[in-house]
Write a structure and sequence with these properties.
With 95 residues, this protein is mainly β. It is built from no helices and 9 strands. Helices cover 0% and strands 56% of the residues. Strands 4, 5, 6, 8 and 9 form a 5-stranded antiparallel β-sheet that branches. The protein has a 4-stranded antiparallel β-sheet with strand order 1-2-3-7, with no helix packed on it. The protein is elongated.
Length: 95
């Protein structure tokens, strides 16, 4: 699975086979990527976000027990004070 924020080179992705979330910053801003997993009751469990600085990518593993659950990948640009801005959400159907 792969998602792009469309914010210049700021991007994020989720690799299902390794449960890896990656955030990449653009030339001027950091990147942010957060995975959310739909629970049996329909609510969403937030995984710890991945943050990175400008002009870098950073990946971390997030334990995901999917069992055909829907996933959301929230991708944002980080502002000057580390706040998320210009976010986009990609939704992936259950496997």
């Amino acid at each position: 699975m792969f998602g792009h924020s469309g914010l210049g080179a700021t991007s994020g992705r989720y690799e299902d086979s390794t449960d890896t979330v990656t955030a990449c910053g653009n030339d001027y801003h950091g990147g942010y990527a957060q995975l959310k997993v739909q629970q049996a009751d329909g609510s969403w469990a937030d995984k710890e976000p991945v943050r990175t600085g400008a002009r870098t990518c950073y990946s971390e593993r997030r334990e995901v027990q999917r069992e055909n659950a829907m996933l959301k990948l929230v991708i944002c640009q980080l502002g000057d004070w580390g706040q998320t801005q210009y976010c986009e959400t990609k939704t992936f159907s259950g496997a």
